[in-house]
Amino acid sequence: MEPYSHHILICTGGYCSPERGGRSLYALLASLLEREGLLFGPNRVKRGETPCLGVCEGGPIVVVYPEGVWYAGVTPQLLERIVVEHLKGGHVVEEAVFHRVTPV
Is position 87 within any domain? Predict the structure, then answer.
């Protein structure tokens, strides 16, 4: 597998986003990554979807690694900010963070 700079996971399950918000975010993600030049090359972002991240309130939930940053209540506008500011620019969208994984 080719190296990547970040891994982004979007919860597409029905509990945290009953109107299928996570599913539509995942569909939007590819076009945002392509637009920002993050689908291929050394700065590429690996993307994935999961049916559950174990947090059923405040969804859709998006998680970005290696920073271990969890975003809640993600809208298409916030996802765009996450891609542009966090994944491309290296600056976490602090006001949308609800959890951080602490390194061991």
Answer: yes
Is 46 within 8 Å of 8 (Cβ atoms)? Answer: yes
Q: How many CB atoms lie within 10 A of CB 3?
A: 9
* Residues 39-82: tens digit of each pLDDT: 999 899 999 999 988 887 788 999 999 999 999 999 999 999 99
Strands in 1-104 per DSSP E:
6-11, 45-50, 62-65, 69-71, 97-100
32 in a structural domain: yes
Is the pTM value of this prediction over 0.90?
Answer: yes
CA dist 21 and 14 (Å) reads 9
Check whether the bond before 66 is cis (ω within 30° of 0).
Answer: yes
Does any domain span residue 9? no
Count structural domains, the chain: 1
Q: How far apart are CA 104 and CA 92, in angstroms?
A: 21
Structure confidence at residue 97 (pLDDT): 96
What strands, in cross-sheet order, belong to the sheet with 6-11?
A: 45-50, 6-11, 62-65, 69-71, 97-100
